[in-house]
Prior knowledge:
Layout: H1 9-21, E1 25-32, E2 35-47, E3 52-62, H2 71-85, E4 90-93, H3 100-108
Parallel strand pairs: 3-4
Antiparallel strand pairs: 1-2, 2-3
Amino acid sequence: MGRGRALSPGERARLVPSLRAHPAARVFLAWSGARAVGVAVCFLAFSTFRARPVLNVHDLAVAAAWRGRGIGRALLEHVRVEAERSGCCRLTLEVREDNVRARRLYARLGFAQAEGAPGVAMQRWQRELAVGD
């Protein structure tokens, strides 16, 4: 969903080894028997405003055939518990404006639009960097 296309073969080959090697990566899987049916890929960051770690939910995905069964909710609840156990002061995530179903789930779980100064909504900005496949 992020870039509107599937991962390239090189990206697919690098994904799992790179996540395993990344010191801030936290990956949570939901299983049905021996099959992974959901994933939450998170990264530990730090709040200089609170002097505590922050956990960012970078990716949350549930296999299409398993959606609507509470797997996303269960993953996010597990992420919350682990973040609290790790002393995090906040969980963060980004969500597309048109992803109404996800926004409803996040709101039910206590997430809200981020604000900076009182009453000022935050924006997510990015700059792409030149890297190979």
